[in-house]
Structures are given as structure tokens and as C-alpha cells.
Request: fold
Amino acid sequence: MHQLNETILQFIEKHLNDDLNQLALNAQKYKDIPIPFIISQINGRLKAKKKLPFLLEYSKILYPKKISMEQCSSEITGRYKAQLYKGNKMIDLTGGFGIDCLFFAEKFKEVHYVERDKELCEIMRHNSQILGIDNILVNHSNSETVLDKNTEDFDLIYVDPARRDEHKSKIVNFQDCQPNILEIRRKLLKQGSKILIKASPLLDIKLAIDQLENVSVIHVISIKNDCKELLFELANQECLAPTIRCVNFIDKENFMAFETKLNAEKNATVEYSLPEKYLFEPNASIMKAGLFRSVSQNLNLKKLHPNSHLYTFNKFRENLPGRVFEIENTFNFNKKDLKRLQKLKKAHIKARNFPLSVQQIRKKTGLQEGGEVYLFATTTLNNELIVIESKKMM
Ligand SMILES: C[S@@+](CC[C@H](N)C(=O)[O-])C[C@H]1O[C@@H](n2cnc3c(N)ncnc32)[C@H](O)[C@@H]1O
Reply:
């Protein structure tokens, strides 16, 4: 691992906006300058701009290889997790680039960072020093070995398993990840008062609850309507009614949360209606959690159809956990109405519980993507196919 000395730092600053392929091709031009290392540092900074902006304030931060940059938590999700807990001692069994650890270090007196990759451990030591953090203990080891040898109790054990196979393809299920959570689950429960496990947003939530058994809380985290993380909190005793918390960050600090008991979903009362004045589309976290009945009951919104997951209401409301549209027109999906739709020329189109895909609708109507109009192709309560023309309110 190279050091970030003054010459290298100046070279990085000077070439930050270069074409990196070109820089790689011209590597022999720069004697004594480790170009591959420089390129990985520039790539790291570029990725950090969006994902980890807090690091850009420190020019001496070392960035890891691409895969660790991709796998690490973002500043937003790292901060979110840390504000859930506090205590004396926590352990992160899959340290990686250490983003989660850095935020947990603000809430725990002692943070144990465990990582099997030596270079990542060196990066963690270096970066915590640059950031002035002195309560992270770096342990270059395997999480399984650490659990086998450990005799202490932790207030929190955190695991964010590696979700890439040997071909670097993304994997989803716990049993394919490293470490295999299902194999270490019992040891985690013995050694930690609280356990937090991060999983792929593609993981089936019900399957995960069955596999993990002691799930007490599930967090479904989205940023700007893009689902990023699932978090499973395990308790030391069996939990019959886990809470599910759907969070959507609208900017760096502010999020909308929708929370319920998972078993309340099945029996929640749903009201149905034909389209009224406004249309509500739940955010990505609620969609992932499948809380379609609870949305109707808890937020007092009427559903358009059991399978449509679109809701309607008459009196404008702010702060709903999703997007709100004002309905301007409702078209039937017949020849005459399709002609009227064609006049719009451009529109954003969504198909929900509709026999045609968005592409097929575009082909039939000739509508281009974009503009101010949002069209929802869907099925009504009376099983009629309609297209709702609307404009976005929030
Ligand atoms: C998804 S990354 C963790 C990212 C981290 N949460 C962050 O925010 O930067 C998973 C890390 O776990 C490490 N890992 C996988 N299996 C491990 C094991 N059995 N013991 C220790 N580390 C392991 C990998 O090397 C990888 O760096």
C-alpha cells in the first residue's frame, strides 16, 4: 500500500478531472509516480462525492479498491444506523472500508473493527487517525475466529456480510454471503445484547425473518425512492410481532418513516374507491415491505384496486410517505381515448396492475418520455382499464 505523501497528493489534485483511461495509458510518462494507486484514489474520491461527501473534507483519506467502495455503506445510511444505538462496546464483524464503524464510533465508547483483508485494516487505521477517531480497535482477523475466541459481551454486534461471489457477481441470500449469517447466528445471539444485520435490498423479507428467527425490528432504507438496505435487528428472545420501519431519505438529513407491526398488515382494513382528486404512490421502502393494507388503514387512504397499490384521496395532505399527484383526467383504454392521449406528445408513464408494459403503452400511444405529465395505467375496482393523467405535487 502506497503512502499519501505531498508529491502524490499534489498529483491527485492536479489530475482529479483527467480522463483516467488516458492517464493509465500515459503511465510511463510519470516516472516514480504510482499511477494505478493514483487512479484508485481518484476513483475513490469521485465515488465519495455522492456516497461519502464527509470524507472529501480530508485530503489525506485513503480510498480502498473499487469493490470495497461499492460495498461500503453510504454516509446517509451509516449515520442512520448509528443513531439507533449507543453504549459501551460494539463490534463490527465485517469492517470493510469502515464507514459504519466510523459512525458507530460516535455512539460507543469502544468499537471493535474486524476484517479479514489486511489492506482494508491498514486503511481503517490510517483513516481513523486522519479523522481524529481514537476509539476504534482494528482486528485483522476472521469474524468466525473472533466469535470462537471471544469471552466478552457486546452491547451491539453488527454484520454487513460480503455479497459478492468469486466472480464478483452480486448475491442476495444469507447462506451465500460471507460470513454465512445462518451459521454464526447462535454465537451472535450469545455474545451480543443487540444484533444488527445488513442485507441486500433484494432479499425476501419474509424468508429472512424465517431464517433469522429472532427478528425484532426490520428497517427498510431508501434514499430518494431507491431502496438501499435492509436491516434486521435480532433480540435475545423470540419475537412474535416484529416492527417494520420503512424509511425514505428525501435529502441528506431528512427522512419520512412509516412504521407498523408486521403482523398487523394481514388484518388491516382497506377502503377502496374510484380515483378521487389526488393519487398517492407509496415510496420504495413501503413497496419493498409490502405494507399495502396498512397504508390504507393507517394513513386513511383509499386503494384503487386490491392489486394496484395506488391510493386516492380528496383533501390535499402534506408529509405522506411517497409521491402525491393531482389527477387532471381519467381516460379509458379504448381507441377514442387513446387518440386524446396521443395529443400529450410526452409523458412519464407507469403501469400498475395493467396488462400492457410501459413500452407497449408507449408504442400504442407514440408518447415520448419526459415532460410535466404523469400517466398511471391501471385497473379500477370495476376491473376497467384506465389511464390517469396527473401532475406531480410532491
Ligand atoms: C459489505 S463489506 C462491509 C462494508 C462496511 N460495512 C462499510 O460500511 O464499509 C463486507 C466486508 O466483510 C469482509 N469479510 C467477509 N467475510 C469475512 C469474514 N469471514 N471475516 C472477516 N471479514 C469478512 C470482506 O472482506 C468485506 O470487506
